[in-house]
Amino acid sequence: MKKVLFMLLFSIALYAQNKTESFDSEKLAEKREITISLPPSYEKNTTKKYPFLVLLDGDFLFDPFYGALSYGSYWDDFPETIIVGIHQNHNDERVDDSEFENVQGIPTAKGAAFYEFIGQELLPYIEKKYRVAPFRMIAGLDTTAGFLNFFLYKEDPLFNAYICLNPELAPAMEKRIAEQLSATKSLVFYYLSTSEDEIKQLAEPIKMLNENIKKDNNPLVNYKFESFKGAGHYSQTLYAIPSALHQIFESYKPITSLEFSNKIALLPSGYVDYLEKKYNVLNEGLHLDVPIRINDFKAIEAAILKNNAYSELDQLAILADKHYPKSMLAEYELGLMYEKQEDYKKAMKRYQNASQMQEIGALTKTMMLEKYDLMLSKIAPKK
Fold first, then answer.
1. Residues near 1 by Cβ (< 8 Å), separated by ≥ 6?
2. Beta bridge mates, 191
3. What is a single molecular function from GO for this protein (predicted)?
4. Do residue 248 and residue 261 come from a single domain?
5. Which residue ranges in the chain fall short of pLDDT 70?
C-alpha cells in the first residue's frame, strides 16, 4: 500500500511543471492570470506534440483535472496533456465572463469579450508558444459549463471535446447543442453530467438536452451522459472528471486483458487488422502520432498463436518493421511464423538476423541465439 501511494505521489511530482502568468488581454481590456501545466516529457522530447485542455474556473478545477490526468498518464491510460487553467477569482467574475443575452441566448457584453479572448487571443497564444497537437478540450462547471457550449455554435467548432459539469444552460441551448452535434461533420466528444439531487432549475434543461442529443445517432458524436446518485452539485464533479477523461481517451488505452479475452481472442481472423484499426482511430480521432505499443504487438501475437493463425505473423512483421525498423521485432515475428509452420531453416535465418538488431521489450540477443540453436537442433536429426 505504501509503495502504491509513493508511486502516485511520485508520478504527480514528475508531472509538475506548472507556472502562472499574467495574460494582457485586449479583448477583456485587463490582465488575466492563467496557469499552464506542461507534461514531464515536454523538455526531453522536443518533437512531441500534446493535446491540450482549457479549463474555465481554473481556480478550483485545475487541481482535480491535474491529478486525474497525471495519474492516468503515469499508467499510460491517458496521453500526457498540456493544461491551461483560466483564473476567474471571484464569483462575480465567472458570472460576468459567462454573460449572455436572454432573448437570443448568445454571449453579450463581458461574455462576448471573454468568448473572443479565448478564441482569438488565448488559443493562438498557446498554439504559438507550445507544442500542441490539433486536439483541443474545454471544461467548466455550472455557469462556465453552460458558457463553453457557445463554442459549439460555430460552423467549425474551436474544440474537439467538451466537458460540461452540471451546466447552467442559456435559453434554447438544450435544442441548439443537439442540432449542432447532429450537423457536425467532424468527430466531437461531448460529456454531460449532473447529480440526482440537482435543483429543478438546472436539472430539467440538462435532462432535455440529454434526450435531444440521444434522438440523433450521428456516428461522429462520441456522447456520454451521467447522473450521479448520492452526490451533490459540487461533489459530483470528482466523479465526473475521471469518467469524462476515460470517455475521451478510451481509444488511447493499451490493450487490456478484458479487451483481449472478450474481443481479440474471439475473432476468427483479422487480428492485425484489429490492431491497425485501433491505432488509426487513436491517431485520426485524437490527432496524436502514437506508435503501436510493444505490449499491444505481443497481445496480437498471443491471439494469433492461440488461434493457430500463423500466416498473420507475416502481416504483424510488416507492421513491426514500419514502427520499429531498427529493432529485432519484425525478424522475430517472421522467425516465429516459420517456426510454427515447421520451416526451421527459414526460422533459423530470421532468428539469426534478429540477433544482429536492436533489442526491444522482452526480446533480447540471447533469446534470439537460443531460438537459433533450437531451430538448428530440429534440423540436425533430419540430416
1. none
2. 163, 224
3. hydrolase activity
4. no
5. 1-16, 90-91, 381-383
Q: What is the CA radius of gyration of the chain?
A: 25
Prediction pTM value: 0.89
Cell numbers at residue 219, please?
A: 456516428
The rounded distance, in Å, linking the Cα atoms of 108 and 114 is: 9
User: Is 49 within 8 Å of 78 (Cβ atoms)?
Assistant: no
User: Among all chains, which residue has been given the C-alpha cell 457536425?
Assistant: 184
Sign of the Cα torsion 111, 113, 114, 118 reads: positive
CA quadruple 271, 274, 276, 282: dihedral positive or negative?
negative
Q: Are residues 200 and 317 in the same domain?
A: no
Residues 221, 197: Cα–Cα separation, whole Å: 28
Place of cell 465526473: 240
Name the domain boundary from 252, 282, 298: 252
Q: Is residue 280 located within the same domain as residue 164?
A: no
In degrees rounded to 5, what are phi and psi of residue 184? Answer: -60, 145
Torsion angle of the four alpha carbons 209, 214, 220, 224, in this order, in degrees rounded to the nearest 10: 70
H or E segment at 22?
strand 18-25
